[in-house]
């Protein structure tokens, strides 16, 4: 039969097998929900000075205080109006513990001398763990008396990274 064109066979579109995909989702969705870690985020209050705020424009009466606490693996360095006080860290193996009570006592003395001061800048070394930073911030903000009463020290805490100077030393060191 020459000259006869073959009939085109029309194929119907084949359906996708959705049952295996639905079964997969039925197993995956509950498993992912059960293994998901839902984490609570904590908020840390920081004092961020504005760029137009200059120390010379202070409207406060009385002596002013420029307070900085440098946190290094060697210890804490309290710098108040260019006067340094070093509080050495206690090291036992790989553990480093800071004497935050001594820091708080020094801050109480400064607060009595400069009652209007409320700002402190923390210079944090890159090797300091996050938990230690929070503990130092809390020690700078308030002191808890043995009676349970809280005394506010320096509530405005600003964080700064330690800057390396031209001599290769980090700021806050001699």
Topology:
Blueprint: H1 18-35, E1 67-72, E2 75-80, E3 83-88, E4 90-92, E5 95-97, H2 100-113, E6 119-124, H3 130-141, E7 142-144, E8 150-152, E9 156-161
Parallel strand pairs: 1-6, 6-9
Antiparallel strand pairs: 1-2, 2-3, 4-5, 7-8
Summarize the structure in words.
With 174 residues, the protein is an alpha/beta fold. The chain has a domain at 63-161: 2-Layer Sandwich (Nucleotidyltransferase, domain 5), CATH 3.30.420. Helix content is 25%, strand content 24%. The chain has helices spanning 18-35, 100-113, 130-141; strands at 67-72, 75-80, 83-88, 90-92, 95-97, 119-124, 142-144, 150-152, 156-161. The strands form 3 sheets. It has a 5-stranded mixed sheet with strand order 3-2-1-6-9, with helices on one face. The chain has a two-stranded antiparallel ribbon with strand order 4-5. The radius of gyration is 31 Å and the shape is rod-shaped. The model has no long low-confidence stretch (mean pLDDT 80).
The helicity comes to 25-40%
Strand order of the largest sheet: 3-2-1-6-9
**Assigned CATH architecture of the domain at 63-161:** 2-Layer Sandwich
Helix-strand makeup class: alpha/beta
How much strand content do the residues show?
A: 15-25%
Number of separate strands = 9
> What oligomeric state do the depicted chains represent?
single chain
How many angstroms separate the termini?
Answer: 105 Å
What's the CATH C level of the domain at 63-161? Alpha Beta
Low-confidence stretches: none
- Total helix count? 3
Question: Overall pLDDT, averaged?
Answer: 80
Shape: rod-shaped
Order of helices and strands: HEEEEEHEHEEE
Tell me about the biggest sheet?
Answer: 5 strands, mixed
Enter the CATH topology name of the domain at 63-161. Nucleotidyltransferase, domain 5
Compute the gyration radius: what is it? 31 Å
